[in-house]
Each structure stands twice: as structure tokens, then as C-alpha cells.
Write a structure and sequence with these properties.
2 domains, Rossmann fold, Glyco_trans_1
């Protein structure tokens, strides 16, 4: 876990000082050459794609030489190598990806290969094998929560390929995501926790929004079955039944995806005319809607991190989420929001906040006065610097 800094005057660790002042073993200038490998990248706009693009930007701004290898087709971008094959539906895979990546690594000579993987990411793991073959230190960030099926797959891959002996350093985006990875990786493979990064100051509200009638509930995310969006609608309906009728309520669910049609039919059938589905929003639009939100709801039980919830917390909005999800890394119960382990727990938490304006106000004040330091880009860059150093060692 990235240590929280005591304040702006806190000194970096000796490892980080060596990394940035040029005395570290990877690069005498203190700047390193990094090759990120990800199945998916811009112009796709999923969670991993956006987070990797933001990390690339932050590392470049810090002075490092950063390139990307991806199997995602698209327009040319500076420093982005698209290893694309003609496959159906433009899937981000390549049947000879390892060989292509071996040649790319040999030509570009990075100091470290940083791989980004979801539950199962064939191209990303080809990047790991290419790094091992070329003798380049490799760090692999797992952006998803490993379920029992995924854990079984990686145990099988260990039997076939012995990946635990490759000298990898693994990172997870939260303690919740790290636990199942550690059970599979065993004691010989380091599994560090490095948070997703956020420009915290950019999400801080510029001014307090004027008072609005009623309570505004907000959720943001892809409307995909694994996110259980229909269960979110049932949660909102149950909350409405527990909140006195004299308290006006409205709910906004931002996002798009394959489950949207079923959600719209459910809203019509249940006459939930106070729930709106405005579609996908840009970051600026999300910041605007957060300014009017009273409670942010993140009910998915297998959320490895919860970037949208972090954005809401940075904007001051009280967050309600699962205690067993990655959101618990930056939301403490009663401080930044409320946590629950079950569906009924979440219903009770949202209803409590909807009824208690004082509690909402105190959490909002706390969130606006404090920053999630471990999720800021300086902390994230320092965390990955330690992982790069560990991979080298």
C-alpha cells in the first residue's frame, strides 16, 4: 500500500530519491524508458484505456520516455505502436503478438515493460513473455478483480508455463483486488497495491452549488450486466420506499452499454419516472452533474477500484459502496461515505443519507476539506517507481 504522506514537507523514501535524482540502478539520469503494453488503448474509452492514457501523460510530464504497444486499431498517436491483426470485430488480439513485441522491445530498449491486464488479457500477457525473453524487467498491473474462474485459469497457466518463476512484480489497484491475486501468485511473487491515479484538484468543485429541492442520487458507470445495473434500479426503488414521501428524490444513472434497453423497459414497467438515463457523459459533464449530487451510489460487489466513485469523493459527494470492493480503500464508513456488505445494507445506507441532511453535509464538508492522497498522481508515480525498482532487483 502506498504510504500516506504526513504533509507537503514529507520527504520521499530513499528508493524514490535514488530513482528521481539519478542514483538509481535503472538509469543514471533519473529518467527511465517505459514501454506500456495493453490490449486496449485509445481511441477506446473504457476504464483501463483511460487510466493507462492518463498514466502515460503523467509519466511523460515527469520527464520519462514513455511508449505504448497495443492491439487496438486506430489513428496514429505519438509513441503508440499498434500491433494489429485482421481479426473479427476488431478484437484487441494478435496471433503472433509475442514475436512482434520481442522485436519492438529489442528495437526500443526500454528499461522496464509495464503490462496492463484485465481478468484475461492475451496481448498483455504476450507482453510479459516478450519482456522475459528479452531480459527486460516486467511489472504487470491487474485492473480487475479475479473471480474463482479467473483464479483457476491462472493456476492452470502456472502449471503450463510456470509464470511464477518469471521474476514478475504484480500490482493491483486496491487491497480488495490484491487479495485473490496473492492467493494465486503465492509468496514468491510480489503483489503491490498502487492506486489508480486522479488529478484530485481538477475534480474539486470551484464553488458550492446552490440548494436544490429534494435529494439527488447519482451513479456513473458502464451499463453492462457484470455491473448489475438492474439491481441498481431495484436498489433505488427500495430506497424510495424507505424515505418519507415528503422528501423529493431524483436519480441519474450516467453511462451506456448493452443493458440500457432492459433498464429502460424496467423503468417504464415500474413507473420510475424519477430515474433518468441520460447516456454517456464527458468528464466535464460528469463534473457538472456531481456538483448537484447529494449521494453517489456504487453498488457493484466486484468493483476492483471504482474510479467514478473516487471522482465523486474528490468532488465532495458522499459515497455509498460495497465494503468488499476496491472503493473501501478511499471511503471510510462515516467519513467519506457509508459502506455495506449486502444489498439491504446499501439500501439502508442510501436511505439514511437521503433522510439525514446533516450527515450528508458533514461528509460533504470532510470530503472537500481532505484529499485522497494515495490516489493523487505524485503518489501513484512514486508507487510505480518502487515497483520498477523491485522488478529490477
Amino acid at each position: 500500500m502506498i504510504p500516506r504522506r504526513a504533509g507537503p514537507a514529507s520527504a520521499p523514501s530513499p528508493v524514490i530519491r535514488r530513482w528521481f535524482d539519478g542514483r538509481g540502478p535503472l538509469c543514471q539520469s533519473g529518467l527511465v524508458r517505459i514501454l506500456h503494453v495493453s490490449d486496449c488503448y485509445l481511441p477506446r474509452l473504457g476504464g483501463i484505456e483511460v487510466q493507462v492514457a492518463d498514466l502515460v501523460r503523467a509519466q511523460r510530464e515527469a520527464g520519462h520516455t514513455v511508449e505504448v504497444a497495443t492491439a487496438t486499431p486506430g489513428e496514429p498517436l505519438p509513441g503508440v505502436h499498434r500491433v494489429v491483426a485482421p481479426v473479427p470485430f476488431e478484437l484487441p488480439v494478435h496471433p503472433r503478438g509475442t514475436a512482434h513485441l520481442v522485436r519492438l522491445i529489442a528495437a526500443r530498449r526500454p528499461d522496464v515493460v509495464h503490462v496492463h491486464a484485465g481478468a484475461v488479457s492475451p496481448f498483455a500477457w504476450m507482453g510479459v513473455r516478450a519482456a522475459v525473453r528479452t531480459g527486460v524487467p516486467a511489472v504487470a498491473t491487474i485492473h480487475s478483480m479475479w473471480d474463482p474462474v479467473t483464479r483457476g485459469i491462472y493456476r492452470t497457466l502456472e502449471t503450463l508455463y510456470g509464470w511464477r518463476r518469471w521474476g514478475l512484480v504484480l500490482t493491483a489497484v486496491s487491497e480488495a483486488a490484491a487479495r485473490p491475486i496473492r492467493r494465486v501468485a503465492g509468496p514468491g511473487v510480489p503483489v503491490q497495491v498502487v492506486s489508480n491515479g486522479l488529478d484530485v484538484a481538477a475534480w474539486r468543485p470551484s464553488a458550492a452549488a446552490g440548494p436544490e429541492e429534494g435529494v439527488h442520487l447519482l451513479a456513473v458507470g458502464r451499463l453492462a450486466p457484470r455491473k448489475q445495473p438492474l439491481r441498481l434500479l431495484k436498489l433505488l426503488e427500495a430506497v424510495r420506499q424507505r424515505v418519507p414521501a415528503e422528501i423529493a428524490m431524483r436519480a441519474t444513472i450516467v453511462g451506456d452499454g448493452p443493458a440500457r434497453g432492459r433498464m429502460e423497459r424496467h423503468i417504464r414497467a415500474r413507473r420510475l419516472d424519477w430515474v433518468s438515463l441520460p447516456g454517456r457523459f464527458s468528464r466535464e459533464q460528469i463534473k457538472e452533474v456531481l456538483a448537484s449530487a447529494d449521494v453517489f451510489v456504487a453498488p457493484a460487489p466486484r468493483e476492483s477500484f471504482g474510479l467514478a466513485a473516487l471522482e465523486a469523493r474528490a468532488a465532495g459527494v458522499p459515497v455509498v459502496a460495497r465494503a468488499q470492493s476496491g472503493v473501501a480503500d478511499f471511503v471510510g464508513p462515516g467519513k467519506e461515505g457509508l459502506l455495506g456488505r449486502t444489498f439491504d445494507d446499501l439500501v439502508a445506507a442510501v436511505a439514511r443519507l437521503a433522510r439525514d441532511a446533516d450527515l450528508r453535509g458533514s461528509i460533504k464538508e470532510h470530503n472537500r476539506a481532505t484529499e485522497p492522497v494515495a490516489c493523487s498522481w505524485p503518489a501513484v508515480l512514486a508507487g510505480f517507481a518502487r515497483c520498477y525498482e523491485l522488478a529490477r532487483g
